[in-house]
Amino acid sequence: MIKSFDLTDQPWIPVVAKSELELVGLRELFVRAAEFDDLAVPVPPAASGLWRILYAITARVTGLDMLRGPQWRQRQERLLDQGGFAAGDVDAYFAKYSDRFDLFGALRPWMQDPRLAVECPKSSGVNKLVFDRPAGNSQVWFGHHTDADAVALAPGEAAWYLIAQLYYGASGRCSSREVAGQKFANSNAGPLRGVMSYHPLGENLFESLVVGVPPGVSSGQDEGLDLCPWERDELPDPLGAPWSVSWPCGALTGRARHAVLLVPDAAGEAVSDAYVTWAWRLPGAASPDPYVVRRQNKEGGWYQLPADDSRALWRDVDALLGGNTEVKTHRPDIMAVAADLGLDGRVRAYGFDQDGQAKDRQWFIALTPPVLGWLSERDPVTADGVALLTRAAESIGRRVGAALRQAWRELVSVKDREGPWAHTGEAYYWTRAEAVFWEHVRDGRFAEGGRAFARLGHEAIDHAADGDASSPRLVRATQTAHRLLTTPLRKGSGA
Predict the structure, then answer these.
(1) What is the pLDDT of residues 276-291, one digit of tens each?
(2) Domain check: are 93 and 207 in the same one?
(3) Which of 66, 118, 383, 494 is the most buried (most CB within 10 A)?
């Protein structure tokens, strides 16, 4: 008989308490949340998804999900004054859904579809579940694993990757699934695939969870239909319309485009196989995620800020603060909550640099200094100053690259050759620009940042073009780069 793995009480979530790492289940996490400093899930896409799941449960056990407007804000403030979750409320919630948090439940395994064992003619393999393993004919990115000798996962680790797949899963080819005589073997991308996710942090895990619950919105829908997947009595109809995007719990936990089923080994002590396939055929309703930055493109459409492993977090702090940014930007909606509550803490960012389909490049976690006190509602001077510094840094960075490309073409007399200078100069510039940025933010010298970044840009040019200084052609090319750096770029100039 397969053992159960009840996520409510089995230890599977890493948390930090006074620099010590612990593994806890969901119940203990909520009851002792004020004792823990932070989550410590080592897989960024799993951590990003888990925060959303925990925010949804927070809304349930505190009653925030039922409130709107001033009542919601007052309740949130009272919770922070209270300093912790009421153990009775936590126990009542998990008792209500006591059969829905078993990772290996026969009828309703948590966040899974048990029908896949029948509807899919072949499993996907445990390697397909794990982002940092190659599966099938995929290229090796993070580690050497083969389907012929797949390494089973501990149940808690499998739960991490289950969450990661539901939020960050790929579009394109997947395991075949047949429903009502209709067979398909392709899926859409998960709602957070390739996107940055930002989370304000409090003094402890309890504060971070309460602050992270987004305020309710008026959707005009029956509020009683705001359900998490594990709270629903019926499994979804894969050929029907996806669940409506209810607020807040449905929006936080119910937008997955993939269906997953974990297969435990005979002893029920590890996950040895998995099904990963499509969940819906029809498109779901669009819904803004409260933890992402949205930017406007030239055509006026909005897109979520993509994750880029080559881009440092400080370059997008202006987009979090809500100052006067260079491009039309909508900061994460959750930042308004942090501003209202007067927090002065940090922001954690999770990124997974991916394309829409099979390529997973790099995932990462980053943490800002304490910046929440600079949100535009609380400190508009600093918010606008950070935006001014960011514009200056980005402008000089673009001009360094453009100037070095042009100078290289002049040196080698080949118009379409990229050359090594731009890459070398940009790397030099961006690895040092962060220190310049924070120095000027700390001192409040926002207007002087442009000159400091320009000086750094000239250093980058000299570094990139470092060579035989006696060569007249090299000297002329370097002088060209310095001259171009001081000349503002024209629109459409290949910056």
Answers:
(1) 999 999 998 888 899 9
(2) yes
(3) 383
